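EI: anyone free to look at a 287-residue chain?
SC: sure, send it
EI:
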Amino acid sequence: MGIRTDLTLEAAEQLSKTTPLEGISKNEYQKANLNITEITVETNTAAQSLSKPKGKYITIHSELPLENYPDNFNERVDILAEEINKLCKDKSNILVVGLGNKSITPDSLGPDVADQTFATRHIKQLAEDVDTSDMSTVSVIKTGVLGNTGMESSEIVRAVCEKLKPSVVIAIDALACSEISNLGTTIQLCDTGISPGSGVENARKELSEQTLGTQVIAIGVPTVVDMQTISEYVFQTPSPNKELNNMMVTPRSIDKLIMRVSRLIAMGINRAFQPNLSIEDITSLVE
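SC: here you go
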């Protein structure tokens, strides 16, 4: 049974039902009412079994939907910043890439995060009377979608990387999951890159260290699940007719979810790369 999911945690759980998990290590802990799971895919055999590249995958799961505004928001921002820093090898020159379609709400996570990310490259280049030595260099782009730009997201990002020579690319995109309990409640981070559009069943050429020549950290939230996957997961049998039109399902509160979770991710990125600025400082600079 081929359950469709972008979450490595779900893929590992499905595989473990039939096959011993060899070449995969797992670490679980809790912070700020969040369940955090680190999975490291260590061998090529494990990567092939999971259909996921070798690398580290961090899943942050909230029992309550991420559309809710928690009392410990600032603490969660700092936890997300910590997890980003765990994956990031070099914070000297950051390129943040918002992937997705701003006009389609379940696919607008990337552009919304980009809109709230504090870009500093121009400040560090132009400021003469201000000490910017404690700032990381951050550039931000939104790639749009092929139908509007005529260009693949991977082409745009590769061209920008050739010019800016970033030490790391942070790519944000919507994901798909197989378990409804992960829909809008989970953030996945990984150091293996991403295929833009995979969450809305429109995967394009991957963004990875192999294609861009620099580290790529991907951050995503499951905003959709397809009906055939729900059927297969619930009934544990293949969908009876694969030729029937499939449908993508998204939470009815998707507008609020995107608004809240995009702010959480953006502030996590901002805190990771500008640790000397408070959340209040950053908010005043990007809003």
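EI: DSSP finds eleven helices and nine strands in the chain.
SC: 👍
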